[in-house]
Structure formats: C-alpha cells, structure tokens
Amino acid sequence: MNKLKIVFNFLKIKLKNIGSVLLKGSTAYMIGAFGLIQVASIVADNINIAESLGVTKEIFMQYLFLGVIFLFPVFLIVTFIIKNNSIKNEILSSLDNNLSQIDDYRPKIAVIPFENLNKDSDGQFLVDGIAEDLLTELSMVKEISVATRKTCFSLRDKDITSQNFKDEYGFDYVVTGSIRASENRIRISIELSDMKDDKVIWSNRFDSENKDIFDIQDEIVTKIVTCIVGEIEISSLKRANRKPTDNMTSYEYTLKGRALNQQYEKNANAEAIKMLDAAIAADKTNPLPHSWKACTIGQSLALGFREDNEEARSDLMASLSKANELNDNDWNALRIIAEAHLTLQDFEGAMVYANKAYNSNPNHPFVLWIYGRILLRYGNLESGIKILEQLYEREPIPMSDINTDRMNRELFLAYYLDKDYKKCEETFNKINECTFREWLINIDIKIKQNKDYAQDNWFVSGIERFNNLDKEKEISLFHLNNKFISNELKNLSQKVFA
C-alpha cells in the first residue's frame, strides 16, 4: 500500500503541470469526436456509402465510433509528450543564462538576527523567523548575493562597525533591526547600512497589526533591493513564489517548525513535525508547512532519526506532493523533488527541477547544493564545479555537519570527472573519513598516474572496511550519468577485491 502511495504522489508531482492541459485536450477531443460523428452521420445519409467505401452505413458508423475510442489514448499520449517536452524546454531555457552569470559580481548582503525588545524567550522564534523570512525573500533576487542563514545567525551580537568584522566577512551591506510584539500588533524598526563607510542608507519603522507582516516584508525587501541595485521589475523579487498564508496561527506554527528543523537534533525534529502539522491544521492551503514537513522527514531519514522504510518515504512524498500542488514554485519542495529524480537517476528530470529551484532561489545553500551536483551529472562540469566551490567558500560546513567532508567529497568527485587529478589529491587529503566512492575513485586516479598505493594507509584500511559491501549496488549509488566511467569503476572494484 505504501509503495502505491509513493508512486501515486510522485506521479501527481510529474503530472501537476500538464494535468489541466490533458483535461482541456480530452474535452476538446470529445467535442471534436462528437462533431465528427454528427457530420459523418449527415454525410452518410446523403451519399451512397456502400458504393463509395464498399460497406454499409451501419458498418461505417461502427468503424468510425471504434476509431474515435481507440485514438483517444493515442491522442492523450501524444499530447502528454508534446506538453511535457514543452514544459521541460521552457524551464531549461534559462539554464544557459543562469550559468553565464555565475562569475558576475553581485553586492553581498547579510541580515543580522533582529533584537527582541520584548526580551521573552517565547517570542524569540517570531523575531528570528521574521528575520529569516527577509533573508529568504532577499535570496530570491538574482541581482544580489545573500549570506547563508548559518552565517547570518552566527553574527548575532557582533559589532558590525568594527574593522575586524569588515575584514572577515567583506559584506557590502548589512540589515539590522529590532522587533517588539504586543497582543495582535507588531513594531519593526529596520536599518540598511553601507559597510564601506558605516553609513545608514535607509531606515524605517513599521507599526501594524500582525496580519500585515507579509505586506511589511514586501515593502522592506523592495526598498532594500532598490537601494542596492536600483529599480528592477517587481517580478524579479519572486513574490509569487511564496504565496504566504493569511492565517497568523499557521504562520507562527510554521516558524516554530522551521526553527526546530534547523536544530538537526532527534527530539527537535520530532517536535518540528508536530508544529508543522499544527500549521497545516490551521490553514490547509498554506504550502510552506508542507514543504518544511517534507524537508524535516527527509532530514530524519538522512540523519537516522527515523527508520528508512516505505511508510516514512510515503509520508515524505505525500508532503512533497501537497506542497507542490499548492505552490509549484516553492524552492524548498523543488530542490527535494530534484533530489528524488537524482536518486532515480532521471538526470534530465533532476536538472529541470533543480533549475526551477535555482530560478526561485539562486542564493540558498540547499538549492546550490543540488544544483551544482546535478550540473556535474548533466555534463556542465565547469559550471557545476564553480557553484560547488562558491558554496564551499560560503558555507564549508553545512548546518547538519561537524566537518567539511560532505563538501570535499563532492568536490573530489567533481575534479575526478573533470580529470583534474592534482586537485583530486589536494581534496582527498582534506577528507577526514572517505566513503567507498572516494576510496575507489582514488585508486583509479593512482592507477592513471602510475603511482603506487598498495602500502598506503587509506588503501589498506579501505580493503578491510569495504570488503563486505555490495560493490555494484554502491557504485550505482554514485549516480554517475556516464556508463563508461561506471563500468570502469565496477571492473576496477572486481580486480581490487578479487
């Protein structure tokens, strides 16, 4: 049953953008078919069908009716293929432009966690949540470079005017502010500072009802972007990609769930699910708790907080499908869908969703992580490497990690695919604990360079660690879109463990 649910929800996502087209096509086909049968009946009454076609009118009409029925699924299949390819081409049409702008300089901005003037721990999630929302909204603008959440929240209580701060982070602009909440009202004071001369270039104070928070965020983001890069089309702010709820209870539960999700701890993960379920119960049309629930379930599986079984995967796909149904431009849902396609080794599908996620949020590390990795598999090695290197520079240790291994492992693979064996060696030496993938690839590199490795500690320890693995299955999990390299590594593995 869970397998059927997984397949059903995955198909819902794939059919989301073409379902209405198929429905309209079906309606048009039925109308056209009915019209054809009516016209054929009139024509048959006025000409001698037996002389013209050699069959009676009754037989002719039966054949026509059966033909209409049998051609209907063919029509739907052709419509599906044409529309599906059209959607893919439309999404990927922005790929080359995106990649051409990777090296372009963009003003760097950070949003420092706002001061909670209420001084209450219960309201801190709201204060941090609003600051993070602004950070997310700004990260959707391609014309600027936005610091990661991890970086921004590590800057709490730091002296942003000090020279040490400027030298270490090199931000062009910094957003600071404070929030005071009372009953159903909220007061936000905000400043945008130019770090070159410690000059406040824009400030404002907003005093409004809680329900107006999204309008306030709109105004703040628009003003900040205008101050930094000048007037741009409002569509560039991607506001339509968010579709916020009007229900403050749902919004507050979503903020609590998101904050708990980002603690990367088992109990917090379980509590995050409860908060997000409460947000969904408060407003079933709010897409954000669904996408963050999918993210939280994925986190629980990746970090071992929950058993990886059909039930868990079914829950993940159900949340993902609902998030995509409510908002098919939600960057968080899109990047998880891209991960799912990568796992299934559907590299074109993965590229479609990763590029769409990048169009929605070109600054978020989660999006850059999947975007860079899929570009490698999609044949865009240079661009994939640039994105992963930039991500490594911005956030070498992702929020859930304790060291740089995950980033260095992916960069090691990238350099291997690019045949840059010098960088491979430098990166391999930075990895604290290599997996079977890095171990096997490093053997291949040593062989290609005619270097001896049989006595090296990494090789000897790997023989013992990886001896009992299902080597062919593990190599398939490398998700390489290159059969020659995959087969080469399979043959190498068989030789090493012969």
From TrEMBL:
Gene3D superfamilies in UniProt: Tetratricopeptide repeat domain, TolB, N-terminal domain
Annotated transmembrane regions: 21-43, 63-82
Taxonomic lineage from the root: Bacteria, Pseudomonadati, Pseudomonadota, Gammaproteobacteria, SAR86 cluster
Cited SUPFAM superfamilies: TPR-like
InterPro entries referenced in this protein's UniProt entry, alphabetically: TPR-like_helical_dom_sf (IPR011990)
Keywords: Membrane, Transmembrane, Transmembrane helix
Designated name of the protein: Putative adenylate cyclase
